[in-house]
Design goal:
- The chain is of the alpha/beta class.
- The protein has a single domain, classed as Rossmann fold.
- Helix content is about 25%, strand content about 30%.
- A 5-stranded antiparallel β-sheet has the order 2-1-6-7-8. The protein has a 5-stranded parallel β-sheet with strand order 11-13-14-5-15, sandwiched between helices.
- A hairpin with a 3-residue loop joins strand 9 and strand 10.
- It starts with a strand and ends with a helix.
- The relative contact order is 0.23.
Length: about 220
């Protein structure tokens, strides 16, 4: 499973911002997305996470009542996912999931993770009380490395602020390590950073830039 395209729009005004991960007919396995402070990096991560989780969560889950989430009033987000069964589009508008994804063959347990979405939020990693004995550098890396002990296949891995607590050299090593361990199992790796220099080892076509000093989602707000 991979993300093909993300369309963000501002409702009746027709404004549109697209992140397209298609590259000469193929979907990129590695995408680095950079932008300055408040360019929407974390919000995009949350939009992806909400559309996926609201679509696949069991119907008896209390959190799924009315398919409502919070924090996205005035936004519309369409995300195209592709797996072996074809393309599925999930749509979130004004805090409500109006079109869920159709994803099959999801397998998630203690040792297997197939057709899933793993999202690593930088704030969650830093504030995790179970890791109080670790340095910030260790908090940002170790939870991700630990998860790689499981069989992660055909899934999407998203890392917010991949270079937080790391210098450019160590960030590049970490990215290389993730590529080696994730891409061999048909996964897609998407990571965000304030600093585009972190992506210097990636082909230009695999890098997306949200701009500097402005919030693209605020521009789209109704």
């Amino acid at each position: 499973m991979k993300i093909r395209r993300i369309n963000l729009s501002g409702g009746v005004f027709g404004n549109r911002y697209t992140l397209d991960f298609n590259n000469n007919g193929n979907i990129d396995d590695i995408i680095g997305i950079s932008g300055g402070h408040k360019t929407g990096k974390t919000l995009i991560t949350k939009l992806i996470s909400n559309i996926y989780s609201l679509s696949v969560r069991p119907k008896n889950s209390l959190a799924l009542h009315k398919n409502v989430t919070t924090g996205f009033n005035g936004y519309r987000c369409e995300i195209e996912f592709e797996d072996y069964n074809g393309i599925s589009v999930g749509v979130l508008e004004n805090n409500t999931l109006i079109q869920p994804l159709k994803i099959n063959n999801i397998e998630i347990d203690d040792k297997k993770f197939n057709n899933g979405l793993l999202v690593y939020d930088s704030l969650d990693r830093v504030c995790n009380r179970n890791n109080n004995s670790l340095s910030i550098r260790e908090k940002m890396i170790i939870p991700i490395i630990n998860d790689l002990n499981n069989s992660i296949t055909n899934s999407i891995v998203i890392i917010d602020d991949i270079d937080f607590g790391l210098d450019i050299k160590d960030s590049s090593k970490f990215i290389f390590f993730l590529i080696q361990n994730l891409l061999v199992k048909n996964n897609q790796l998407i990571f965000f950073s304030n600093n585009s220099d972190v992506f210097s080892s990636l082909p230009v076509s695999n890098c997306k830039f949200l701009g500097q000093g402005k919030n693209i989602l605020e521009e789209l707000k109704v």
